[in-house]
Amino acid sequence: MSGSLSGSQIARVEAFPVAPRWVFVRIETADGLVGWGEASLEGYADVVSAAVEQFAEYLVGRDAGLIEDHWQVLTKGQFYRGGPVLASAVAGVDQALWDLLGKRLGVPVHALLGGAVRDRIRAYGWVGETTPPRSPTTSRRSSRWVSPPSR
Asked: Which residue ranges have biased composition labelled Low complexity (predicted)?
């Protein structure tokens, strides 16, 4: 089926912990398409990464287009349903699979999920240090309204 992920097998699932607190999930299909998601949980990057790597054992070789089916299996297919660690890992996988579908179809993910709900968002510009800027001047500059890039 043209423009779908049906038949596009997941070839690789990787978790990338990034200091000080993030985890990014990368899913690659057999035909080389790559999707990204975020699976961060403050203070538990290594544990969430391990959960993503465990999910990879199930996902590799399966159809990347079966997003809802994968979500159901990862969240409800075990005796214990998990908590914030597993929920974060599933969220990163889910985002990466939606990213793959959007790329395959040539549309932004928000179009797949019902459309945009705003034309601009407040973006927080501080990242990397362990404490955010303290002065009123730098605090005002670190948060501002931005519009998405025009297509």
From this structure: 130-151
